[in-house]
Amino acid sequence: MKQKSPNILLIMSDQHHAGLMSCAGDSIAETPNIDRLARQGVRFSNAYCTFPLCGPSRMSFMTCRHPHEICLWDNESQLNSDTPTFAHSFLSAGYDTILSGRMHFVGWDQRHGYAQRLISDVPQSAHLAAGWKLRDVLGDLVDTPGMSLAGLLKSGPGRTGYHAYDEAVTHTTVEWLRQRGLSRQEKPFLLTVGYAAPHCPFVAPPADFETYRRRIAYSDLPLPDEALHPANAVRRQKFGTDPAPPVDAQWRSRVAYYGLCTFLDRQVGAVLSALKQTELETNTIVIYCSDHGEMLGEHGMWWKSTFYDGASRVPLIVTWPDQITAGKLRPENVSLMDIGPTLIDLAGLDALPGASGRSFRSLLIGSDTRWEDTAFAEYAERGNATVCRMVRSGPWKYNYYHGMEPELFHLPDDPGETNNLSGQVSYRDLERHLNELVLRNWNPRNVSQYMKRRNQELALIGDWVNSTRPLEPDPLWFSERLENWVANDVTRRED
What we know:
nine-stranded mixed sheet; four-stranded antiparallel sheet; 16 helices
């Protein structure tokens, strides 16, 4: 008898540090539901995003292509609707494709291959009209979800619309799973669930903040890196963390971030419980991942936008009952853009046209000694001439900075990435090889020119937005029901 096509439940968080899970060795974190998922399947210890920023990372993830292949290097850029995603592949193969929650789609197309969207995105993805809608959700914390000192200074216990949003995503997803279970449909589904947590603002539910308040001391805070690479030093200055923020603000932010990870874990647990209760679990592939990490003060840096493992390495766990060996840890280098091809491979579908990602099916089932042990990431900023690209190859990480000296780290011996080996004679051949890998099919001059032009284009559009204040044309961005739910839940942070 032919095996039924597997269901797929893909859960993606936002800005989850790969090491901040009990299953990853963190002795403080309480993440029992994610830990249980890791015990049931395979956890990848060296999974990387392709771009340490929300929008480009997610669009690369959806299309299974490098950011430079889809020309997306910032959160304001739109993914072309004629670019296929892995959701299109599953829909074409007869799957129900469902999106619940966050995916950071920008522009008029809020589906990109999903046939149904159960709940809209948080409003910062609402492109042109994001400015005033975000205030409805965050109130006095409106200036804190981005990379700014204000986010650290206002951190602590409290409740924001982001918490309400994630709870709404959980509620909506659980109800969908229950209805799906009752319907006894034979048709398989791809259900993608997107959460905002543990993304800043670093404001955690009071009970979760209290859980970690006594576990984390001032002495646990990482020390700033005084020998920071110039490209990262510029970012630290730009985002207001040089000089270092007040110690109390850093401590509150760290405590709150841990609390947000536990809050996220509860949401994941509720969805997994619903999957089990509906008896859909036995033939469902479950994936947990995040779009990028969080520096959390390491090297004196916060948030993302760097190649350090805190920002570029992500959690990745895959389970499939009776098909994947439980409790396995894979150290190979894999990428978020490999997830789509892997799911397509596991489901037995035709390959996604144009995909650069690779299926790591053989790493889930058996052992692949032929796996090309590399993962790439890139980064560019509008108005900033510095473009850069990273390759993780085996134990090595090589960071190329256009017009600047590179970095070379041997991560098994230097997990904190503090000993730059670049320029040493003994590593000359290795550097030459890694430099060739980075520059293969990637031109930093073209990226730099594009970003400068993009800065000019968006400045003109911004002037138009400020002058016209256009209404959002797509009700899927923020339904009236959800808008009221979230806005009414906004409260001030407790002092």
